[in-house]
Amino acid sequence: MRPDSASSVARESTQFSGLLNRVETDEMATEMSADVFRRSDCRLCGSTDRELVLPLVPTPVGEGYATADRLSDVQPCYPMDLFMCRACGHAEFPDVINPEILYRNYLYQTSVSLGLVEHFRGYADEVVRLVKPAAGSLVIDIGSNDGSLLKFFKGHALRVLGVDPAQEIARGATEAGVETLPDFFTLDLARKIRRERGPATLITANNVFANIDGLVDVAAGIRELLAQARADQRRLDSRLCPTPERAAESVAISRRADGA
After folding, report:
1. At 200, is the secondary structure helix, strand, or coil?
2. What is the CATH topology of the domain spanning 110-225?
């Protein structure tokens, strides 16, 4: 969609969007206030120049199925308005739902999707062929779900570790032989994993960045944990911030070149 078309849609639907967002009662909106907040900036570039491009009806949490004894319960609805950043073009939902609500009791499992397990088999084989990790290298999957992908990396004689906040799914994966931390991946967790298990040779994340708010923190965690990324950063730092001895040497060379 072109930006000018998006602007037209936004202008024409502003009133409609306002009506949709009043679907909830005041009581439910008050109840939700602690569970959702609206970002004032783009989560990708930080710009505040955004516009509404597609108003959507507020909806309950996906796959939050009600059991028989809860059929009469009213499920909270959450905003679904889609915005676009004018600065970088990123499309996103600015309303951030507490991830504890979305993912702690998450139900979907990778293994039930037809063809996905076989896709992950080929995925793991291709990555190992390209990267050629040494036996025993650490592979981490962020949002690892039931461990379907990591099982194939484990079959290549690699150490594996999953990270997924869905507690029951993480427990099941661990019991099935793929150790999984029931937590959200963050920079702090990355540092803890590196201290306890060493750096990772491979880190995978499938359909993860589209589902998180803290993009910078997760990216920083990946850089912290990847063995090669840390080495590259040290080399970069040595060029940008040399030791006093190398700095003095550079100054001397520059002076000689200038005829000083």
Report:
1. strand
2. Rossmann fold (3.40.50)
Residue 86 CB contacts under 8 Å (≥ 6 apart), including other chains: 3, 47, 49, 50, 51
Task: Please give the Cα distance from 244 to 247 (Å, whole number).
Answer: 5
The first and second tokens of residue 106, run together, are: 């998450």
Please report, to the nearest 10 degrees, the dihedral formed by the alpha carbons of residues 30, 33, 36, 39 taken in order: 120
Return d(Cα 115, Cα 127) in angstroms, integer: 18
Task: List Cβ neighbours of 187 (8 Å cut-off, separation of 6 or more).
Answer: 217, 218, 220, 221, 224
Two structure tokens written together for 205:
């994340």
Residues 35-90 pLDDT 10s: 999 999 999 999 999 999 999 999 988 877 778 888 888 888 999 999 999 999 99
Cα–Cα distance between 96 and 35 in angstroms, integer? 8
- What does the alpha-carbon distance between residue 49 and residue 93 come to, in Å, rounded to a whole number? 14
Tell me if the pTM is above 0.85.
no
Output the CA angle 10-17-92, nearest 5 degrees: 65
Write down the H helix ranges in 116-243.
116-131, 148-154, 167-175, 187-197, 215-225, 227-240
Q: What angle do CA 199, 200, 202 make, to 5 degrees?
A: 160
Name the residue ranges covered by the structural domains of the chain: 3-97, 110-225
Q: Which of 156, 160, 197 is nearest to 178 (CA)?
A: 160
The DSSP symbol for 59 reads B
pLDDT tens sequence across 109-125: 999 998 999 999 999 99
The percent helix, strand, coil of the chain (3-state, each to 5) is 45, 15, 40
